[in-house]
Amino acid sequence: MMNSTLDHLRQLSTQDFAAFGVDHLAYVRPIQVDGAPAFSIHAADGAQLSVLPQREVAFAAIRQNDMEPMSVH
């Protein structure tokens, strides 16, 4: 079962790979806004969804939208 899954993932097109998880995952990345720390939320395809002032608030917003938050450093 594991090998067939890996084989399937290896055969994804670039477009399919970019869309992988787009409805299920969101990434939180620390940024600066006007010199102040903030946290940018991005969809799995890299599209920016929101900017919030606190990491915990960003994670909560993602979970409220039935998605899984991931941290990007």
General shape: elongated
The whole-angstrom Rg is: 15 Å
Helix-residue proportion: 25-40%
Whole-number mean pLDDT = 84
Uncertain runs are none
Number of helices: 3
List the helices and strands in order: HHEEEHE
Distance between the termini: 32 Å
Structural class: alpha+beta
Strand content: 35-45%
The count of β-strands is 4
Largest sheet data: 4 strands, mixed
- Side-by-side strand order of the widest sheet: 3-2-1-4
Task: Describe the fold and architecture.
This protein has 73 residues and is α+β, with helices and mostly antiparallel strands. The protein has three helices and four strands. It has helices at 2-10, 14-19, 55-64, and strands at 25-33, 36-43, 48-52, 68-71. A hairpin with a 2-residue loop joins strand 1 (25-33) and strand 2. The model has no long low-confidence stretch (mean pLDDT 84).
What would you say about this model in short?
With 73 residues, this protein is of the alpha+beta class. The protein contains 3 helices and 4 strands.
Features:
73 residues, alpha+beta, 3 helices, 4 strands, elongated
Task: Please specify the SSE layout and strand pairing.
Layout: H1 2-10, H2 14-19, E1 25-33, E2 36-43, E3 48-52, H3 55-64, E4 68-71
Parallel strand pairs: 1-4
Antiparallel strand pairs: 1-2, 2-3
